[in-house]
Amino acid sequence: MWNPTREGPHDTSPAPRRVRSLAAAALFAALFASSAVARAEPLGAGAATEPPSPPPAPTLSVASSPPATPAHPLESGTCGTAGLERVAEAARRGTVRITTHTNWGAGFLVDDTHVVTHVSVVGRPFKLRVHARDNLSIDAKVVFIDAFERIAILELDAPIPGKALELATSAPVIGSEVVAIAVPVDFGTREERFPTHRRGVVSDRDDDLLSTDALLGTNHTGGPLLDCQGHVVGIVVPSPSGVAVGQAPMGHAVPVGRIREARESVGKKPYQSKPGIVLGFATTFAGQFERGRGFIGGTIGIPMLFAEQWEFLPRFSAFVQVPAKGDIHLPLGRTDTLRLVGDVRIGYRIPLVSSPATVSLVPSIGAGWNWDFTKEKTYNLQLDDPTCMNQTTACSFRMVENEQESRTQTGAVFVGLGVHVHAMTFGYELRVLPSPDVKFIHQLSLGISTF
């Protein structure tokens, strides 16, 4: 029987002993559970003797697919931002546009007074103009053309200081990136659009030619091919007339070594310009109006340019009369006229705009000869039997055709005014035929010309 007086500091009653037993069992269970968790992943035979490995270092996640590669080497960007900035700065300083009355193209300054370009840009013997930045325009003349007739060097009438491009010390290696500079249409007016460029990779090279995978246009011809440092490594040559189906586009340039040779040859031998007349081809659709009659026809001719701005044009024309609409009356009649014209014209080209679409005003005078071949047909009704009117039988009629031909020829003089917009021509002429009676013929024309 329990006696409260016997309870002391060392109590051995059953209740406290049960509490201590439960606490010990809970501690054992916790230790057993942690050991089971540690052994949850099976280990190899020798794993128990190895120390635990340290946790792996954190790694960066990588995209499952690589970034898309550029579709064309032109966008490869191997020059980098700094390289392209150097190319743009060099192009702004040294690229120029070259114009004649019939052609245009690009070029670049190699010193204050000399410009290098391709021969095709200045291949015609006309007055040259070099257009630089800041609306600067200077006359120039050809002082050197190399033996291969690819490189032309021009001498300026006035210097352009501080804008020359530096020539590279050697040609670029295959696989290096280059930038071809072109002359934009709005050269000198839109600073933010310059330079117009096309990037590519050198695909082949030798002492006479560089090849790049960049497709270059006509506005690149004569312009510089620059490396990523802004140094000239070549002159762009004209693009081929066509590219075969399946053939990769290709641009070409004369390497810098040939440019150095040409530059060193300037002044050693006097350059003799090739005199002569430049032949072209012209055709027009024209209409003539004279005394209420209208004619339509066309002309073909061979224009000849000489002395820079003079044009001599022999031509041949043919016109047919347009039938006039009128009341039908008897006797019925129709007149057909064929007009053949041969003449020569002398004009003077006055340039209005020097741009890729060159605009010129051409006043002209001329003289020639007119041949008119006229066929007149008259249709009359005629009774088959004149006595039928006195008889009770019906009268019958038939149409009788009367034909008459005539030929006339006379001299002619004329004055005219034309507008040339690149290959298109628009013209008006007043022709005077003094005999057999004075006639004034107005002629309007629309056509094309090779210059």
From TrEMBL:
<dbReference type="Pfam" id="PF13365">
    <property type="entry name" value="Trypsin_2"/>
</dbReference>
<dbReference type="GO" id="GO:0004252">
    <property type="term" value="F:serine-type endopeptidase activity"/>
</dbReference>
<dbReference type="InterPro" id="IPR001940">
    <property type="entry name" value="Peptidase_S1C"/>
</dbReference>
<feature type="region of interest" description="Disordered">
    <location>
        <begin position="44"/>
        <end position="77"/>
    </location>
</feature>
<dbReference type="InterPro" id="IPR009003">
    <property type="entry name" value="Peptidase_S1_PA"/>
</dbReference>
<keyword id="KW-0732">Signal</keyword>
<dbReference type="GO" id="GO:0006508">
    <property type="term" value="P:proteolysis"/>
</dbReference>
<protein>
    <submittedName>
        <fullName>Trypsin-like peptidase domain-containing protein</fullName>
    </submittedName>
</protein>
<feature type="signal peptide">
    <location>
        <begin position="1"/>
        <end position="40"/>
    </location>
</feature>
